[in-house]
Write a structure and sequence with these properties.
This protein is mainly β and about 110 residues long. The chain contains one helix and eleven strands; from the N terminus they run ββββββαβββββ. Helix content is about 5%, strand content about 55%.
Length: about 110
């Protein structure tokens, strides 16, 4: 089932939403494929978010031990003014507690 992930800066949490539920968490590890989705015509935020087709690939508040299986490759950056992401799709993302989003590679 398709899920949308975005940052709620007013509460400093990440929000995950699909047609069945909405949940907020401190951090997220997405272990599958993801896509940047943009809706610049929307009147309210968020106008840009990350989507995934498989909700079972979302890990809520992963432990630091679990994150040791991954290496940071780059940052996913959202330009709120121009409603754009620096990278449009990929595999493995870590949404950190501080609001930063990292593109990861799983170590062999």
């Amino acid at each position: 089932m398709k899920s949308k992930i975005h940052r709620c800066n007013c509460r400093k949490v990440w929000s995950i939403q699909n047609r069945k539920f909405k949940i907020t968490v401190q951090s997220i590890l997405l272990t599958g494929e993801w896509f940047a989705e943009l809706k610049p015509e929307r009147k309210c935020e968020p106008k840009g978010f990350v989507t995934t087709k498989k909700s079972q690939e979302i890990v809520y508040n992963p432990t630091s031990k679990y994150l040791e299986n991954f290496t940071i490759v780059d940052k996913l950056i959202y330009d709120k003014k121009n409603v754009n992401f620096n990278i449009k799709n990929g595999k493995c993302l870590y949404f950190a507690e501080d609001g930063t989003c990292y593109i990861l590679n799983k170590e062999a």
